[in-house]
Structure formats: C-alpha cells, structure tokens
Amino acid sequence: MRRGTLYEHIHEKEGKNPSPLPLARRLKIAAETAEALAFLHHDTGMQIIHCDVKTANILLDENWTAKLSGFGASRLGPEDLDSKSNTLTEKSDVHSFGVVLAELLTGLEPQRNLAKVFVGLVEGGTLDKSLDEEIVEGNFDIVRKAADLAKRCLKPKAEERPSMKDVAAELNGLVRTMEQHPSEGGEADISPSPKDTGNLGGSSASSASVGDIITSAL
C-alpha cells in the first residue's frame, strides 16, 4: 500500500515526514477497520476470527482508505464458543481493536500493558493530557466518546465487550459528526471515493471481493 501501515504513521514519525493524522482521519480509519472485522464476524456465513488485529496489519492506500491485512493467524469459529475459556473468539478481536483505538488516541506504543494504562487514563480523568500531539486541538467531546468506546472494547470479561457491528456503528456516528463540523479537528471531506469501495477495509465491501481476500490469506 502506498501509505504503508497505520503503525508507521502513529509511531514512526521521526525522519519520515508522514502526512499528519488529524482526529477525523483517525476515526475514519478506525470505522473502516471495524466494518471489516464486523463483516468477518457476522456476514461471511462462516465466522472468521482475525486473531492478529493491530496497527501494523492496517494498511492505508493513497486515499487513506484502511485495508485489513495479516490473516495468517485467522481461524474459523462458531459464535457460541465459551468466552471464559482460553479459546479465541470474536471478542478477542474486539479487545485487540480496543488497543488500536487506544493507540490512535494517545500515540502510545502497543506494549503489553497499554490496555491497563489507557483505561487508567480514562478513569482517572487524565486522558486529555496524554493525547497524541496531532489531535490535541480536536473536538474533545468526540475524543471522550471514542475513548469510552475503546474502554468498553477493553473490558476484561469478553461477554461485556460490544460486538464489532456495534463498534462500527458508533464510530461511523462519530465520523458523521466530524464531517458536519470540519473546523473542530475534522476535514472537509473524509469519505472514501467510489473507487475505494468493494474491498475488505472499505465501508461498502462486497461479498465477492471480501471472499477473495480472505480465501487467499487463510
């Protein structure tokens, strides 16, 4: 992908002079990734658990459209797996996505205890002091809502986490709000262009094209 990975844009800024990631763009990338995961979990006819959701596996094309990659660890699994066992379920992907959201908001590296650190920032009311420098001027009400969503994704008990469908719906709502208020940390036009649809990371992924990507990756 022309713009590389999301990880590179968040964590490897020094010396590469990457384009900035304002809040609206980050939310759009998050929403597209959430939609791709929701498709895998609920709309393929045979549930697919990604098992390796992380910023290094989110690719960005020339139009900043997110493409979910890294299917090497993916597995098939029914939705009623025991969430109290060590078996990976779709809620494992939800937790990993919560870490992605935490990275997008804070710019912190995805170390083992990032989830605990992030939840502590939110619950301690100090998140505003730990935001990534590229979004500190953004709409903090939107940031707070995104942070609350990330916190719910990071719940220790899998059954208390939202589904990826619910996550995608909330993020798309935040994206629409940012589109309506581009002067508050948003961009005038962050919607994907028509040529970007029909892929796993896009918001209008077709069953055929998604199936091709998944089949070749598993």
Automatic annotation (TrEMBL):
This is Protein kinase domain-containing protein. The lineage of its organism: Eukaryota, Viridiplantae, Streptophyta, Embryophyta, Tracheophyta. SUPFAM superfamilies: Protein kinase-like (PK-like). GO terms for biological process: cell surface receptor signaling pathway. It catalyses: L-threonyl-[protein] + ATP = O-phospho-L-threonyl-[protein] + ADP + H(+); L-seryl-[protein] + ATP = O-phospho-L-seryl-[protein] + ADP + H(+). InterPro entries: Kinase-like_dom_sf (IPR011009), Prot_kinase_dom (IPR000719), Ser-Thr/Tyr_kinase_cat_dom (IPR001245), Ser/Thr_kinase_AS (IPR008271), WAK-like (IPR045274). Residues 1-175 form the Protein kinase domain. GO terms for cellular component: plasma membrane. Gene3D superfamilies: Transferase(Phosphotransferase) domain 1. GO terms for molecular function: ATP binding; protein serine/threonine kinase activity. Keywords: ATP-binding, Nucleotide-binding. Pfam families: PK_Tyr_Ser-Thr (PF07714), Pkinase (PF00069). Residues 178-218 are annotated as: Disordered.
